[in-house]
Amino acid sequence: MSLLNPLKPSERMKVPRQESIEQPASERKENFLEVSFGLNEERARVEATRCLECKNPVCTEGCPVGIDIRSFIQAILQKDYVGAVKKIREANYLPAICGRVCPQEEQCEAVCTLGKKNPAVAIGKLERFVADYEMENGLFTVPEIAVRREGKIAIVGSGPAGLTCAAELAKLGYNITIFEALHAVGGVLRYGIPEFRLPRKILDLETERIKALGVEIITNFVVGRTATIDEFFGEWGFNAVFLGTGAGTPHFMGIPGESASGVYSANEFLTRVNLMKAYKFPEYDTPIRVGKRVAVIGGGNTAMDAVRTAKRLGAEKAYLVYRRSKKEMPARVEEIHHAEQEGIEFLLMTNPVRILTDANNWVVGMECQRMELGEPDDSGRRRPMPIPDSNFVINVETVIEAVGQAPNPIIQSTTPGLNIGKKGTVVTDDAQRTSREGIFAGGDLSRGGATVILAMRDGKRAASAIHEFLSTKRTNHEEDSPLYTNPYCQYIS
Amino acid sequence: MFPILSKEPLSPTITRFVIYAPYIAKKRQAGNFVIVRVIETGERIPLTIAEGDPEEGSITLIVQAVGKTTKLLCSMGVGDHLVDVVGPLGNPTEIVRDSVVACIGGGVGTAELYPITRALREHGNKIYTIIGARSRDLIILESEMSACSDYLFLTTDDGSYKRKGLVTHQLKDLLDAQVEFDAVYAIGPLPMMKAVSQVTQHYGIKTYVSLNAVMVDGTGMCGGCRVSVNGTMKFACVDGPEFDGHKVDFDELIKRNRTYGDFERESDRRYCETHTWERQEVVK
User: What is the pLDDT of residue B284?
Assistant: First the structure.
């Protein structure tokens, strides 16, 4: 029984889960401001009282990066918001981001004891509250770096995996340089996730905090092209490399008409808007053509981001076309819900078969067929089967495909000795070690397309492995042994 | 930040820049390009690297002022800097050895052809170069190309300089004169590369073309530069930019490259309203 919480456990269960204050759907579908304003202090404090302070905090086990959730909630009860965010930052250096984009309903909140009979504690919203509180009040202080260690580490890619790995290693006292191919930092957090889910201000601030640890960030540097990994180990003098280059190569469905003007990959569409600020044309020079009627193909978070972005850019009809039912959608429930609120029309059990074009190769429509669900496939989801003679045409002028991504092959093809999985991923063991000594990988590059938080977990694990590697290098392995191979990274063909 | 080290007009609308970009200078090969962003609010555009000087840490870019971004770039001078230059991107050109080749450049495409011609020269090839442009003003790098070619032919559409006609007329004449080409490298506007490819297909001569598709990132991430090659979707930035000219669907790419035409004209119009844009004096 806690001295901090005035409520008995039975009383805590009666407190309703506190909800975020949100921008009304009718307004937000026309702007790029953040959808959710989060919890205010009053609601956050009420929400904190709902925590049962379990002896065995299963929530921490449910967190991919193992945040001490019980302790940070206790700090909120004491009004020690800065203490709470410091507690989080011990395990996760980017709380303002995770508090916004983590699928807590599948992680910490899914296992919350309170959640067995009542709505779970809103852990994600509390995380965001304390991170925002610290940010708004300018209370961030750079963690003290106790020791300086020998060791120069290159982090390739400045997405969630790379930023996390960099932060963890910088805290340990290593010399860190991040290399980013684009002109701005953040990877998918920058080019993929829209402003209305993750404001750039937040990303910029979190980036500044990484730099405050002494991390150097070099943009406009395509590793594999501007310099290779082997050059990093050679003339650049790096002792270890972490690869976190994500899954940036878009898939296309392979249906007729995809070369038409008006067909985008979700990557291109979102990059034009998020990275290049095409929504501010002509103030910004990058154009984007949205049109009045838009179809986005796919059922993941990227599809939701694209369709909600299209709506905000003035699409009168914004369809989400998905070949299974809503239940099978990989997107977060909250994102689906927000999309529905904003007037996105869901065409479910619908599979595009052809994009229709005019003589100048402009999109004029999309032919689809209706589907029904058959037996479960390898993913455990019921396999969609076409219904004969069910084809119909939707009248659209823009088609955006959000049907998955694969890792960008530039590093794999320029780094000999890296074992590559069948979907182009870099194979690693549980400690994120690749088949080559000194090279570690994580995030979507090794997973092939997952979440921000899993990328962060990989970044963190890799940081531990790199620390161990650099601490023990001289005793375990012969120096200059290019033939070292990691037996846990078997070639997958 | 990437400072401009020197600037030289090559034609009333075409300018040669030397830019400080040491990593790129060291690594670039013939056929590589960079993605450039001129100012913070600017777009990302691909430009071929014409030359590199690893000692000085510089690369040479040759830019034709055709729209807002290129006009803005061409208005900049020594001491100014570009906010972003990234590369070298794309696959380097496949350079044949000890063969007879034709190097065909159209307009500013000659700037892209120049490093390739030099590389071909270094690999012991016999080189017939044909440079074409709409008019005399747009013929660039005549002396540079002459220096690395065995034979140099020039054509202008309007007859204002050397032969009146198209590069394909000159190419056909050479073929009629029994010159046996092992390979042809053609870089220029899409209709020109298409026409060259049609001619060489008839003779079964391997033809390399360099595709200037619309790009955002230039690293295979957006898919905006997709082109159909032999019926398969390819990304010009990472699978190219050079492809077998006989397999490229030029008509499709010509249409795709018009996707943003109205936006480009709008940007250009706004830029020209607020900036005086003058053709530059060139001492040839």
Answer: 55
- In whole angstroms, what is the distance from residue B117 CA to residue A194 CA? 45
Q: Is A282 on the interface with B (CB under 8 A)?
A: yes
**How many Å apart are CA B192 and CA B166, to the nearest integer?**
9
**pLDDT tens per residue across span A118-167:** 999 999 999 999 999 999 999 999 988 989 999 999 999 999 999 999 99
Q: Per-residue pLDDT averaged across A237-241, rounded?
A: 97
The β-bridge partners of B20 are: B58
Looking at per-residue pLDDT, the higher value among B21 and A29 belongs to B21
Which of residues 319 through 338 in chain A touch B, CB cutoff 8 A?
none
Q: Could you say which of 1.10.540.10, 3.50.50.60, 3.90.940.10, 3.40.50.2000 is the CATH number of the domain covering A152-248+407-492?
A: 3.50.50.60
| Residue A23 forms contact with B (CB below 8 Å) | no
Output phi, psi for A119, to 5 deg. Answer: -60, 140
In this complex, do A276 and B84 lie within 8 Å of one another by their Cβ atoms?
A: no
Measured between alpha carbons, how far is A200 from A192 in angstroms, rounded to an integer? 12
CATH of B2-89, picked from 3.40.50.1240, 2.40.30.10, 3.40.50.720, 3.40.50.2000, is: 2.40.30.10
CB contacts of B272 in chain A (<8 Å) are: none
Residue of B nearest to A411 (CA): B219
Interface contact B248, partner A, CB < 8 A:
no
Instruction: Please determine, looking at this structure, whether the domain spanning A251-404 carries the CATH number 3.40.720.10.
Output: no
In B, which residues are within 8 Å of A262 by CB distance? Answer: 259
Phi-psi region of A195 (alpha: psi -120 to 50; beta: other; left: phi over 0): alpha
A residues 171-190 closer than 8 Å to B (CB): 181-183
pLDDT band at B155; cut points 50, 70, 90:
very high
Nearest to A271 among B37, B217, B260 (CB): B217
Q: Three-state DSSP class for A394?
A: strand
